[in-house]
Amino acid sequence: MNETAVYEHLTTELKSINCMHGFLEIRRVPELKRELESRLHKGQLDTAFFVKNLERLEVSAPTRFAEVNSLIIIAAPLPLTRLIFEYQGRGRPVQIPPFYVFKDKLAAIRKALGRSLGAAGYQIADARVPLKLAAIRSGLARYGRNNLAYIQGMGSFHRLVAFYTDLPAPADAWFRLSEMEECTSCGFCLGNCHTDCLNPDAGNRFLARAEKCLTLYNEEPGELPSWITPWLHNSLIGCMRCQSSCPLNRTFIRNVPISDTFNEPEAMAILATPVFGDLPGALQEKLVKYDLQDYYDLVPRNLKFLLEWEL
Ligand code: SF4
Ligand code: SF4
Fold first, then answer.
1. What is the 125 CA–ligand 1 centroid distance (Å)?
2. pLDDT single digits (tens) 265-276
3. Does residue 311 surpass a pLDDT of 50?
4. Which residues form the 4Fe-4S ferredoxin-type domain (predicted)?
5. Alpha-carbon gap, residue 5 to 191, rounded angstroms
6. Which ligand is nearest to the CA of 197?
7. What burial class does residue 115 get, using C-beta atoms within 10 Å of its C-beta: 0-12 exposed, 13-18 middle, 19+ buried?
8. Which of the ends of the chain has fewer CB neighbours closer than 10 A, N or C?
C-alpha cells in the first residue's frame, strides 16, 4: 500500500470513531519541549509548575523502532458526564469534565491505528509529549483564551493522545500559536475563572497562570493549598468553569443526560472509604464505568467538597 492510501485509510478509521488527527515531523518534537522551556525562561510559566508537570515529558522517540518518522496527534470527542449523588435526603448533581472517562475511547483508537497503520506494516508507540502544543502546531487545534485546545466540531470537549510511528508525516506542519478569532470579542471564560488563573489584564493566553489552575491541584491526592477554598470545586475532578461558559462549547453542554445515580449508602461508602478495593464489589463496578478507579485516591476528598459545600 502506498503512503497516500495509508493516510486515507488512517483518516477513515479514525473518522469511524469520530476522531480527528494531525501529524508532526519527528524533528519537530524536541521543539515542543524547547518552546515550553523558553516560556519558563521568559517567566511565563511557574517553575514549580514546570518541574511538576512538564519536565517529565519525554520527547525522545522510541529506540526500538529502526526509524521513527512522525508523531500522530489524535483528538477524541468526549462528553461531559453527569451523575447524581444522594446525600442528606437530596439528589446532588456531580459532573466529570470531558477528559477523564477515556479508557473505552483509547481502546477504540488503538484498534483503529492497528487496522490502518499496523495492517500496512507501520509501527506505533505511545508518546508523552506536550499534547496541546503538538495539536496546535500540527494544525489540529487552536488555542482558546482559556488556554485550552479547541478542535473543529468538538470545542474543548475532547482528549488528545499522541503516538510515534515510522510512517512519514504527509507534510511539515508547524502552525502559528495564534488565539482563536472567536475570542477577540468574547472573554466569558476570563470572567468565569475564580482562581485568577486566566489573567484578564494580561490579555495574552501565554500568561495564563497555570500554577493557579484548580485542575492542577484537585487532580493530585493529599491536602490542597489553603487558597483553594471548598466553594471553588465544581467537578468531581478538574474544573469546568472556563469550558462551560464558552460559547463554542454551548452545544456540548446542552441536554446532557444523567448517566447514573448513586444512592445515599453508596455516597456515604465512598466518603468513608479511602481505598478503592475496600468498596463493595457492586459499587466498584459502578465507578469503573466512569474510569473512577484510576482517580479513586481523589474521589472521596473531592466528593466531600462538592456534597458538603452545597448544603
Ligand atoms: S479550569 Fe478552572 S481554574 Fe483552570 S483556568 Fe479554567 S476556570 Fe480557571
Ligand atoms: S469563552 Fe470566549 S474567549 Fe474564552 S475560549 Fe471561549 S470563545 Fe474564547
1. 31
2. 999 999 999 999
3. no
4. 174-203
5. 47
6. 1
7. middle
8. C
129 Cβ inside 6 Å of ligand 1:
no
Angstrom CA distances, 117 to 2, 21, 106, 140, 234, stand at 12, 13, 16, 19, 40
pLDDT score at 205: 45
Q: Which residues line ligand 2 (CB under 6 A)?
A: 144-146, 180, 182-183, 186-189, 245-248
Instruction: Output the pTM of the full model.
Output: 0.93
Q: Which domain holds residue 242?
A: 3-309
- 137-153 pLDDT, tens digit per residue, is 999 999 999 989 999 99
The cell numbers describing 197, all together, are 488563573
Total of domains in the chain? 1
DSSP for 171-198, please give it. Answer: S------PBPGGGTT--HHHHH-SSS-S
Question: Coil, helix or strand for 95?
Answer: strand
Question: Which amino acid type is present at position 248?
Answer: L
